[in-house]
């Protein structure tokens, strides 16, 4: 198992990539924003992209790593409804796409555990 510091930096890289993707290709993220949320899907896409970039920065810095790791764990739990919506919306797509959407659902658990491990290396 990698050290908490390496784990935090790897998670920071993942979050930074995902955050940037929200601005590079926002339509795919707009499509999975639950309709029950107020405001426009694009606003939620931008907000979640900003959150991911902020979490990445916080994880990269040892002095904010522990707090950022906790926030990342909460964030991963908070975006779960979007993954549920995606799995539901993609239920009639071809099998590879349907499998991808369904695979995202249990992925949140290891992401939350990863964030918790990454926080052990902070101050």
TrEMBL record:
Pfam families: DoxX_2. It is found in: Membrane. InterPro entries: DoxX. Keywords: Membrane, Signal, Transmembrane, Transmembrane helix. The keyword Transmembrane helix applies. It is a multi-pass membrane protein. The keyword rRNA-binding does not apply. Residues 1-23 form the signal peptide. One of its GO terms (cellular component) is membrane. Its main location: membrane. This is DoxX family membrane protein.
């Amino acid at each position: 198992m990698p050290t908490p510091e390496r784990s935090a930096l790897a998670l920071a890289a993942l979050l930074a990539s995902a955050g940037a993707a929200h601005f590079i290709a926002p339509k795919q993220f707009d499509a999975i924003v639950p309709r029950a949320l107020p405001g426009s899907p694009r606003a939620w896409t931008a907000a979640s992209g900003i959150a991911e970039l902020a979490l990445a920065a916080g994880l990269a810095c040892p002095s904010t790593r522990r707090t950022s790791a906790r926030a990342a764990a909460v964030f991963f739990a908070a975006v779960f409804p979007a993954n549920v919506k995606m799995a539901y919306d993609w239920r009639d797509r071809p099998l590879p796409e349907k499998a991808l959407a369904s695979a995202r659902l249990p992925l949140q658990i290891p992401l939350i555990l990863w964030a918790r491990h990454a926080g052990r290396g902070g101050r």
